[in-house]
Amino acid sequence: MPYRLDRRSTGKKFNWQGSCHSICVSSWKSAAAAGGLLPAALSVRPLEEADRTAWDAFVWGHPHGSPFHLIAWKKSIEQTFGYRPSYLLATRDGRVCGVLPLFLVQNWLVGKVLLSSPFAVYGGILADSAESREALCREARALGERLGVKHVELRNAWEEQTSGLPRLNRYVTFTQSIGPDAEAILESIPRKTRAAVRKSLKAGLESRREISDPGTFESLYSRNLRKLGTPSFPPCHFQALLDNFRGMADIREVRSGGKAIGAVLSLYFRDQVLPYYGASDPCANALAPNNFMYFDLMHWGGRNGYRIFDFGRSKRVKGSYDFKSHWGMVERELPYEVMLIRGKELPNVSPANPVFRLPILCWQRLPLAITRALGPHLVRFVP
Are 216 and 260 in contact (CB under 8 A)? Predict the structure, then answer.
């Protein structure tokens, strides 16, 4: 069963140091500061089936937890892409004190690497102390050496997750406080974008919530990815997210005259709304469907008790970064880290890499039917 959550329970406090019943693989001990006593042993070992509830409870209770740390993300990535999970769990005295989701990815483009996590904007170590974080970092290095990977990539969202490793200074994220007052949300948006939102609100657009069928969304999204020169995802990826994040994911369609002209697949975590995949019909740009779509989602989220709108990751290059930066949100650099194992330099598989310029241009000129057929086979090479 998925770790089900509806909005009514997002305020619930969890025992995030839940019990785990397994034998530790390795441990570290340090002398107590007083009394000559030793504290409980800290141990790191692979995640086991019986640990799943305790793992999720820890993620829900940790201040830097994210939906990409949950078991639901693990299940979705396994089902769709077949990457091998190597999740690490830190315990002390039988209680969870840290987690690190990792997947082994191996192909001709990226080589052999450990990622935390594939297709996720956030990841990395969640720990209750520096000691727990360092222990997980050491075990990740040991695992990487045993597997012979080029590197371990930690997609940290916060500085408090970092371990002093080399940085990938490439991405930022955008967040905004939201509430139930639509006018207050509008006033928080800079004048030019606010005018575009008001225009869209007068265009007769409607929104419809979909929680089970991603077909319309997938069609719009694959067209948008072709335009960007990016391979499309397999349709089963979106279905897996809706199924595994049941109660925590949906699709909101923007409709005009009964036709969908925009759609966004969002994840909901604690008090946060995360619009993760979004697309619109370029033929409907005059109606500003993207502006309507994201404002409508902010307003809906605020009315339903959510307090943070997480606009997600962008590279500092022309495109989505420009669009997001015009909403006046708080911009924060993402402190991604890379632990080099066999590799000698930091990876750069980003579309911004000049090496990919020609392939992107070629992809943009292929017929849609071909990109939709080939995309799901190619996208797994760039997680």
Answer: yes
How many angstroms separate the CA atoms of 293 and 79, rounded? 29
**pLDDT score recorded for residue 39:** 59
Per-residue three-class SS string for 252-313: EEEEECCEEEEEEEEEEECCEEEEEEEEECHHHHHHCHHHHHHHHHHHHHHHCCCCEEEEEE
Say what the pTM is.
0.87
Q: What structural domains and CATH numbers belong to the chain?
A: 14-162 (3.40.630.30), 173-332+363-381 (3.40.630.30)
- Give the Cα separation of 267 and 306 in Å (integer): 12
- 363: confidence class by pLDDT, cuts 50, 70, 90: confident
Q: What are phi and psi of 207, to 5 degrees?
A: -120, 150
Q: For position 5, what pLDDT does the model report?
A: 39
Listed residue (99, 44, 141) closest to 338, CA to CA: 141
Q: What is the distance between the alpha carbons of residues 163 and 149, in angstroms, rounded to a whole number?
A: 19
- Rounded-to-integer distance, Cα 301 and Cα 308, Å: 9
